[in-house]
Design a protein that fits this description.
five-stranded antiparallel β-sheet, four-stranded antiparallel β-sheet, 6 helices, binds magnesium ion
Length: about 250
C-alpha cells in the first residue's frame, strides 16, 4: 500500500505545482492522470458508478464545492480555494488522498479554513497512536472544527481502504449515530482513509445537477484534506505521505 500511496503523493505534487490563476480544473486532472499512467497505476475514481459514471481520475472541488467536483473548463481565479482528491491502485493495493490549495492570495478567514481542516487531519493521525477507539478520535476532530467556528460535514466520511478503495469501516469525522453500534478498535493492521470535510458555514450540502458535485448548501467555502494511514505497532504510518527512505525517494523519481 505504501507504493500506491507514494504514487498518489507524487500525483498531488504535480497537480499542486500547477495551481495558479488561469489554470483549468481539467489541467489538474490531466497532471494526475499522467502520473498514474507513468506508473501503470489504475485511477480509482474514473468510472465510479452513479447516475452518470464519474468521468475523471480526480475530483476537483472549487470554493463552495465540498467534494466530488468534476474537472473541466472552469478556470481558477485568484482568491479561490481548490480541493484535489485522487486515488489509484498499484499492484493490487489502493491509496487515496486529498488536499485543498489556495489559488493566489486568499482571504484570512479562508486561509484559516484550510489550516483548521489540515490540522484536524493531522490531529486525527496523532491520536491514532494514543486512543483505543475511533469515536475517541472523531470527538476531538469535531471539537477542533467547532472551536474555530466551522462545521464538520456529516453527509460524507472516511473509509477503510485496502485492495478496494472503499472498505469497511466507515470513518466519520464526528461522533456519528452509526458509531454507537459501529465504533471500532484502532488495532495494528487497520488502514483508514481519514478525510475531514469542513464548511465555513453550516454543515448542510446539496448535489448539483451534474449528479456529482456536492456543494455547501449556504454557498460558503469548504475544505477537504485526506490521507491513507496505517495503524502499526510502531504508531500511525501515513501511506500517502512523502517519500522517506532512499528506496521511496528513488521510486518517486521514476
Ligand atoms: Mg479521496
Ligand atoms: Mg477517500
Amino acid at each position: 500500500m505504501r507504493w500506491a500511496g507514494l504514487i498518489v503523493w507524487r500525483a498531488h505534487q504535480e497537480a499542486a505545482a500547477l495551481v495558479a490563476p488561469g489554470v483549468k480544473t481539467a489541467d489538474l486532472d490531466a497532471a494526475v492522470e499522467a502520473v498514474f499512467a507513468r506508473y501503470r497505476a489504475e485511477p480509482l475514481f474514473k468510472g465510479v458508478p452513479g447516475v452518470v459514471p464519474f468521468p475523471a481520475a480526480t475530483c476537483v472541488s472549487v470554493n463552495e464545492a465540498v467534494v466530488h467536483g468534476i474537472p473541466g473548463s472552469r478556470v481558477l481565479r485568484a482568491g479561490d480555494i481548490v480541493s484535489i482528491d485522487t486515488g489509484c491502485r498499484f499492484e493490487g493495493w489502493c491509496g487515496d488522498s486529498a488536499y485543498t490549495h489556495a489559488v493566489g492570495a486568499i482571504a484570512p478567514r479562508w486561509r484559516q479554513l484550510l489550516d483548521v481542516t489540515r490540522e484536524t487531519l493531522e490531529l486525527s493521525i496523532r491520536l491514532l497512536a494514543v486512543k483505543q477507539r475511533w469515536s475517541e478520535v472523531a470527538v476531538e476532530m469535531a471539537a477542533k472544527v467547532r472551536g474555530a467556528g466551522f462545521s464538520v460535514v456529516e453527509t460524507f466520511c472516511g473509509h477503510g481502504i485496502g485492495r478496494g478503495m472503499h472498505e469497511e469501516p466507515q470513518v466519520p469525522n464526528h461522533v456519528a449515530e452509526s458509531l454507537k453500534t459501529k465504533d471500532f478498535l484502532l488495532s495494528p493492521g487497520l488502514v483508514l482513509a481519514i478525510e475531514p470535510m469542513v464548511n465555513m458555514g453550516g454543515k448542510r450540502v446539496r448535489c448539483l445537477s451534474d449528479h456529482w458535485t456536492q456543494v455547501a448548501a449556504d454557498g460558503l467555502p469548504s475544505a477537504h484534506f485526506e490521507h491513507t494511514v496505517a495503524v502499526t505497532e510502531r504508531g500511525p504510518w501515513v501511506l500517502t505521505g512523502p517519500p522517506i527512505t532512499p528506496e521511496e525517494v528513488a521510486f518517486c523519481q521514476r
